[in-house]
Design goal:
Helix 2 packs parallel to helix 3. The chain has five helices and four strands; from the N terminus they run H-E-H-E-H-E-H-E-H. Helix 3 links the parallel strand 2 and strand 3.
Length: about 150
């Protein structure tokens, strides 16, 4: 699955026409799906409005040719849930989330579990976990991911 880059113009604005070209390139090169925005696509540099707009462009440009997994990581459960609902309504096939990416330190499993539950409840499409170690991310051990939902 390809992770398209976020292209930024010299004036600092997102370059949507070039983003559309990158998406077409990913499809033409045989990607099995598109995952955006996540760490490799500079999601932390985008405003909420840019993330919402680019998710819409991603789904529209893809036109159901590939699976679309939208990154909905948020600094809070509420932000991730808001992004999750938006991308579901836009037409994404699933979401991926990395919990509490701006907070420091370890979190009790219940906090991470609640983050994913709220994201899942809002998105109502498949949720993929994204692990990324601090300082930008929250380490999510494999043992936690493999536990049954309680």
């Amino acid at each position: 699955m390809a992770i398209p880059s976020t292209l930024i113009r010299e004036d600092g604005e997102v370059d949507i026409p070039s983003f559309r070209q990158v998406l077409g390139f990913c499809v033409e090169c045989g990607a099995h799906g598109l995952v955006f925005p996540v760490n490799a696509s500079e999601f932390t540099s985008l405003s909420d409005a840019e993330r919402l707009t680019l998710a819409e462009v991603l789904v529209e440009q893809n036109d159901r040719r590939l699976r679309v997994i939208a990154g909905v990581a948020g600094a809070s459960e509420e932000a991730a849930a808001r992004f999750g609902k938006h991308v579901r309504d836009t037409g994404a096939d699933g979401v991926t989330a990395m919990p509490h990416y701006v907070r420091r330190g370890e979190f009790p499993e219940r906090v991470v579990f609640d983050y994913y539950r709220k994201t899942s409840d809002a998105a109502r499409i498949p949720v993929f976990t994204q692990n990324h170690v601090p300082p930008v991310g929250t380490n999510t051990p494999a043992g936690f991911i493999s536990k049954p939902c309680r």
